[in-house]
Structure formats: C-alpha cells, structure tokens
C-alpha cells in the first residue's frame, strides 16, 4: 500500500470497525468524565463552600428577559445590584440605562472574567463592577435596585434575607421565576421571559396590614380587633 493511502485506509477501517461492548463503555466513561470535568472546572468552580441545595447553575437571561427587567426598573435611580450576575449582561444594560454604581455579584470566576471582558469590549469597564462574592454574604442594607434570576429553590430563602436587610424604598425585580410568597407590584412580559417587580414598602405594608391586630381595652376585658 502506498504511504499516501494510509490515512484514508485508517479512516475506512475506523468506519467499518465494530466497537463492541468494551469500546462503547470506554466512550461512555470518557464522555461522562469530560462532562464532569467541564462542570467542576468551568461551570461550577467557586461553589465548593456553598451547600448543594443553594447552588444555582448559570443560564443567561434572554434579550426579551433583560428588556422586561429594564422596563420594570424604568423611572428608578441610583445603584443597582444583580445577585448572581452570570456573564454580566444585566449589570451592563443597567449601566447603559443610567444606574450608578451597577454591581454584579458572581461566584464563578470564569463568568466574572467574561463579564469584565464584555464590559471592556463595550467600553464601560471602568463604570461597572463585577465582584467574585457569595450573594448570601452581601450586605443589602443600602441597595435600592436589585435584580435576580435564580432557581425557585433558593428564592424563598433569599426572600427572607431581602426582607430583613433591604431599605423600604428598594425595588426587587425577579426574572424567569417569581418570589411565590410575595405579591408583585408589576409584571412584564410573557412565558419564560417574564419579570416581576416587588416594592419593599408595599410588601411590608401588606405584612403589617395582615398582622395589624389592635388591642382595645374595653372596661375590664381586652378585645383584639383583627383586620
Ligand atoms: C441563572 S444565572 C443568571 C445570570 C444573570 N443574572 C442573567 O440574568 O443573565 C444565575 C447565576 O447565579 C450565580 N450564582 C449562584 N449562586 C451564587 C452565589 N451564592 N453567589 C454568587 N453567584 C451565584 C451562578 O453562577 C449563575 O451565574
């Protein structure tokens, strides 16, 4: 056989060869290992200290979702914080819409670098901030505009943190998944691109109204008036 024919012959051999059970098992194991390595090395690094039930995978917001989030923030001023900022698209758009400072908190170092690259490419790298921090450790007491796109499993826990720390004039906007125990003040969009806005003041007022049991003293007895 001519030397030039060797690659063609090898390819033909490969195509006709029967892999057999052992070959299939090797390919399956190799693929599984590659997927696992990608998950550990690229998609989920930085999450080792985060309990499994609080780990949320990366999935970027769609263009329509970003637009819906921004529509709900229209008329608001000041800073904005995106909790779990992914590749930084919400933060970048918020900066374009005039929010200053616009800050993203993200645990995955690859995504933090990617966000910085996107901001640099857009010429805004000095105006936005991407921090590699665990969102559960962020002090929210001075945040006025907050965006989240996180799994439903963590939203009820996050709700408690936000309710405890945010100022009254804060607005929370959730993309894709709502806070099921909160009543939104506005909703924008449809289907998977939908976004919900929650006013902290309205939520606290609502809770207050529900718990607003006034104790009235009537002679010797005490009456409780329930709203
Ligand atoms: C569904 S993605 C949303 C990305 C981005 N906000 C967007 O709308 O395109 C959720 C992001 O939250 C990040 N994340 C999850 N848990 C986190 C935590 N405890 N601290 C910081 N970031 C976290 C994930 O790495 C992921 O990038």
Structural write-up:
This protein is of the alpha/beta class. Helices cover 41% and strands 17% of the residues. The chain has a domain at 63-209: Rossmann fold (3-Layer(aba) Sandwich). The protein is built from seven helices and nine strands. It is elongated, with a radius of gyration of 26 Å. It starts with 5 loop residues before the first helix and ends with a strand. Residues 214-219 and 222-227 have low confidence and may be disordered. The structure holds S-adenosylmethionine. S-adenosylmethionine (SAM) binds at residues 50, 56, 58-61, 82, 84-86, 89-90, 105-108, 111, 134-136, 149-150, 175. S-adenosylmethionine binds at residues 50, 56, 58-61, 82, 84-86, 89-90, 105-108, 111, 134-136, 149-150, 175.
> How many DSSP H or I helices?
7
Main pleated sheet: 7 strands, mixed
The proportion of residues forming helix, as a percent range, comes to 40-55%
Radius of gyration: 26 Å
Beta content: 15-25%
Poorly predicted spans: 214-219, 222-227
Q: Which of globular, elongated, flat, extended, rod-shaped describes the shape? A: elongated
Q: Which class do the helix and strand fractions yield?
A: alpha/beta
CATH superfamily of the domain at 63-209: Vaccinia Virus protein VP39
Average of pLDDT: 85
Helix and strand element order: HHHEHEHEEHEEEHEE
List ligands, each type once: S-adenosylmethionine
What is the CATH C level class of the domain at 63-209, in words?
Alpha Beta
CATH topology of the domain at 63-209: the name is: Rossmann fold
Give a count of the beta strands, DSSP E runs of length 2 or more.
9
Strand order of the largest sheet: 3-2-1-4-5-7-6
CATH architecture of the domain at 63-209: 3-Layer(aba) Sandwich
Give the end-to-end Cα distance, rounded to a whole number of Å: 94 Å
């Amino acid at each position: 056989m001519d030397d030039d024919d060797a690659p063609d012959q090898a390819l033909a051999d490969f195509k006709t060869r029967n892999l057999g059970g052992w070959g299939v098992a090797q390919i399956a194991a190799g693929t599984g290992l590659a997927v696992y390595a990608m998950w550990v090395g690229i998609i989920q690094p930085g999450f080792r200290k985060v309990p499994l039930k609080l780990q949320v995978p990366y999935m970027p917001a769609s263009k329509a979702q970003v637009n819906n989030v921004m529509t709900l923030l229209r008329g608001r001023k000041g800073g904005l914080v995106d909790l779990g900022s992914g590749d930084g698209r919400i933060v970048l758009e918020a900066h374009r819409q005039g929010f200053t400072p616009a800050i993203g908190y993200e645990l995955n170092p690859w995504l933090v670098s990617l966000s910085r690259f996107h901001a640099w490419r857009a010429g805004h790298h000095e105006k936005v901030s991407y921090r590699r921090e665990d969102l559960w450790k962020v002090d929210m007491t001075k945040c006025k505009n907050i965006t989240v796109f996180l799994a439903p499993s963590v939203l009820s826990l996050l709700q408690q943190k936000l309710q405890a720390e945010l100022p009254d004039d804060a607005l929370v906007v959730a993309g894709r998944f709502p806070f099921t125990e909160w009543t939104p003040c506005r909703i924008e969009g449809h289907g998977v691109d939908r976004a919900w806005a929650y006013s902290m003041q309205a939520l606290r007022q609502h809770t207050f109204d529900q718990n607003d049991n006034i104790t009235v003293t009537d002679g010797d007895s005490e009456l409780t008036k329930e709203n």
